[in-house]
Amino acid sequence: xxxxxxxGFLHLVEGRxxxxxxxxxxxxxxxxxxxxxxxxxxxxxADALAAGLAAxxxxxxxxxxxxxxxxxxxxxxxxxxxxxGAIWVPVGTRLLPANLSYIFAEAEVQxxxxxxxxxxxxxxxxxxxAPVILRHGSLADVLAGDGPPPAVAVxxxxxxxxxxxxxxxxxxxxxxxxxxxxxxxxxxxxRASQSGPDDVLYVWEPFxxxxxxxxxxxxxxxxxxxxxxxxFTVSGFWDQVRACGAxxxxxxxxxxxxxxxxxxxPRDKDHKVGxxxxxxxxxxxxxxxxxxxGVRMVEGYGMTEASSLTTINDEGLPGxxxxxxxxxxxxxxxxxxxxxxRGTRGEIVVTPIGTGAAALFSGYxxxxxxxxDTLRGGRLHTGDQGEMDAxxxxxxHGRLKDTIxxxxxxxxxxxxxxxxxxxxxxxxxxxxxxxxxxxxxxxKLFIQLAPDRRASGAEIFEWARxxxxxxxxxxxxxxxxAFERTxxxxxxxxxxxxxxxxxxxxx
Length: 507
Hints:
Elements: H1 11-19, E1 24-30, E2 33-38, H2 39-55, E3 63-67, H3 72-83, E4 87-90, H4 97-106, E5 111-115, H5 119-124, E6 132-135, H6 140-143, E7 159-164, E8 174-178, H7 179-193, E9 200-203, H8 210-213, H9 218-221, E10 225-228, H10 237-244, E11 248-251, H11 255-260, E12 275-278, H12 283-293, E13 296-301, E14 311-313, E15 323-324, E16 328-333, E17 346-352, H13 368-374, E18 375-376, E19 379-388, E20 394-399, E21 403-406, E22 409-412, H14 413-420, E23 426-435, E24 441-449, H15 457-465, E25 476-479, E26 504-505
Parallel strand pairs: 1-10, 3-4, 3-5, 5-6, 9-10, 9-11, 11-12, 12-13, 24-25
Antiparallel strand pairs: 1-2, 7-8, 13-14, 14-15, 16-17, 17-19, 18-19, 19-20, 21-22, 23-24, 25-26
Helix pairs in contact: 2-3
């Protein structure tokens, strides 16, 4: 189908450096301004770090945990790990010692590399006697080696990364991502972002999430530049986009809603962005964002287990996650595994086509039960709910397990949340089931108010009565100053108080 399918990316580095050594691979925000790094610089730094890792005994198959911010040092380190055939274990910078101990043990980590500011947190975790390297300034100061790195034969089917799922409802599972899978992810990102020569992609995502990781090798397969920022801030988002000349921005979780809640500005359309691409964009947010900021919206859907993206909606139709990428077949199946009639909801199930088999993971590490539940007959059962229209376009309706049973009716928490988020005073919200006096469960709604906005539970409930069905209305409303979120900005619902109480309770 495509000459790169099932291929990796390491072999592209040498040719890129030879053909266009001075092309900018990535720029980054520093205290002294935006600093650019060309292909020669990135490749040379990656080689030096690979030599340093090899000198410390890291070779093919060894696991290296990386707990760092989004910057060019991290990008070079990933390329260095890949070149040695070692395995990258990305770790979130906001995790606590207990989280780290689990990840270090699950991934059998042999070396930990972290920001110096995170040294105390790492020290409190059980890193199983693995040495720890702390980055104080430049990673080269503590890791770079002399001479060329050793030559290592790396196959596209070799594991590049062990990615831990977001863990929004429970303990994260570990997904082995191969070199080939990362190539598929990058190719899909290039399609979704509609990136071409001289495009600049603003990278706010942490590299420890697949949304950021897939961009690391994008400049190897397209003539694009990455603009890296170590800190995502809603208030400073557009200023950074303008400063780096970004032409493409990525959205995940509630990013678009957060940006829309910011006060309108005369500079809302003062930027070079042509496309906003990503996932989690509902029809109303699509229309509002495109109108206010003057960008083209592209919506996608996918999971790390299937190389990040599975479908892309580039047809300009709000409310859809689009059609399957060429290397996948997507069906909507009922609980018995039968295909649902068009327009009927069921589970989104993904099957690779031909050499696209290399885009599907082989199973979770140390979790045979989860693997059997997810991979059945060569198909990926996503656990997500969707429907397909007569033209083969898919709509997303939330997690199957994120359904609340209210007096015999199934309520999608996702649908409730996306209605409530339309309220002007609501910055973010989350709906969860709690014990009910009558029936299976009641809905408890957590709300984070937008800056300088006020609203009571009673006011929000009355507003929602004309927009939600009776069984979709919350019984309990609780206000929170902020939500604990995953790196992709998804709310961690398992941390919310699931007792039947709140700041407002319907009588």
